[in-house]
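User: quick one - fold this with 5-amino-5-deoxy-1-O-phosphono-D-mannitol bound?
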Amino acid sequence: MCGIVGYIGEHNVEDALINGLKRLEYRGYDSAGMSLLINDKIETVKKIGKTQNLHDAVTKKYSGGKGGVCTTGIAHTRWATHGMPTEENAHPHLDMNGNFALVHNGIIENYKNLKDKLVSHGYTFKSGTDTEVIVNLIDYLYEKDFFKAVAAALKELHGTFGIAVISKRHPGNIVVARRGSPIVVGLGTNEMLVGSDVSALVAYTRRVIYLNDDDIAMVKKDDVQIYNIDEVPVTRETALVDWDPGEIEKSGYKHFMLKEIEEQPDSVRNSIRGRIDFKTGTAILQGLNITPKEVSGTTDITITACGTSYIAGLVGEYYFEDLADIPTEVAQAAEFRYRNPILKPNSLVVAISQSGETADTLAAVREAAGKGASVVSLCNVVGSTIAREAGRGVYLHAGPEISVASTKAFTCQVAVLLMMALKFGRINRLSIDAGNLIADEIESIPEMISKLLKTKSEIEKIAEKYAAAEDFFYIGRGYMYPAALEGALKLKEISYIHAEGYHAAELKHGPIALLDEKVPVVALANDIPGKDKVIGNIQECRARKSPVIAVATEGDEEIKEYVEDIIRVPKTSKYIAPILTVIALQLFAYYIADKRGRDIDKPRNLAKSVTVE
Ligand code: M6R
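Assistant: Sure. Structure tokens for the protein plus 5-amino-5-deoxy-1-O-phosphono-D-mannitol:
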């Protein structure tokens, strides 16, 4: 969603800000802006559309120099929530008197009451945003101490925020704070950066401090002091980001999505590296920090997540029940706390999130912990809020995922869930030999993915044939049911084609009414248990004239007589088949979206990290 970057130091400020904003573009946005402190005055430039528009405007404005010293600035990419995407609504926002400039991620729930109060004190507003209320409130509460004014204002806010504020009366300072929306401080030498995401900083420094909720930091070019909301100093650890800035470059690929699809042999390899132990036929997942006694005493598992991570959880449900004998359900994180989940003393809650910042998943983690359940997380972003709040879990090590459409995070999530189920299974029911069979399969995943990726041009040809269709169904059973959901989700989010993932047997209970020759059906007919039944379902579709594209196992000749086109995947067991099938469907969606000329990495209306409810 929105992105924040701030810079204070001796390098060119606007370059650092633009560079940071460009690295945050993947989060999704519709306008961008920056404020610079020049000669103790705040100068602000805002533009709707791409950050390049802002870049061009800033370059033009300062082509003859800035006319003074500038060491401090803040910038923002906005994804509209309160108010349309216009320059007035774009951040930074200034208070009525022009003393402070502020950028904000999140939503202020009581902004109307605060606005009424400020209006009664003579304040006027230019935008329709909740953010402008915060900066005016800071100005209203200001009594010579910048930090205290921000702290006092934050005490009055209800809702979520990550903010960065500068003041013309206090050049050389940026105040940042968070509640429910991430803020990270990057520690340089004679320079400091702040951001909503480490990608904004990683070109400058790898040493970072993640703020906790209700932390407020006073950042100077050579010092960072952190306090809690009651203004008591607190200490936060410095972490080292293990990403290479090169990992967040396109490296010659047309889109990040294609790059990330092709990275999957390596990302899964990194995810499983050092985590399989053939001596004991199990997985070693240190971060879970869970004893065999705790596993054997686990009565049930609830997996909670959103979007693609939720779908990975659906595959995990099969793993935990098949391999570890533990009743498992998957709960949409957005519903988790509202349906008052039944959690027993020995229930385990597994929260899955690529970003580790998704608001609904974070709320589910808090609800589960509040009800006394054990919580573990599966996150990709190291140091993210969900990972920190869960306290224990497994990092995916997929590397930075930039494309809004999640690809490599999904396959790593499924690989980690399989390792977890193997570990739990070995404690509960699997013999060492049975464990080693699964371990062998896990080890073979990267090679199988490489094999599949070699057939991408064949998938592209099939995609070209169907690129003009306006509706698709994806059907599957058992382990392939979640794969059908994920295939449909990928297609709709990047191509804007209506696509529905359905259980193959459910089709005839209603949606079959929609089938005709204009509605292709992608049928997941892998050679694993359930295939015969899927063939029956394919015939039901053909009888309604729908063209059927099968995903089928290499060497399966029988399938040819039932379908128009076949996407082949290497032969594997049912445990690995969802991973390979989803990768084939990622490519299918990618090529269709590319043929239709879509903005694949930044699809309309979507954000990479959804930090609002
Ligand atoms: O960062 P998270 O895994 O928590 O994100 C959850 C969803 O927002 C995310 O998977 C979304 O559905 C993707 N755009 C799907 O490609």
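One thing worth noting: The mean pLDDT is 94.
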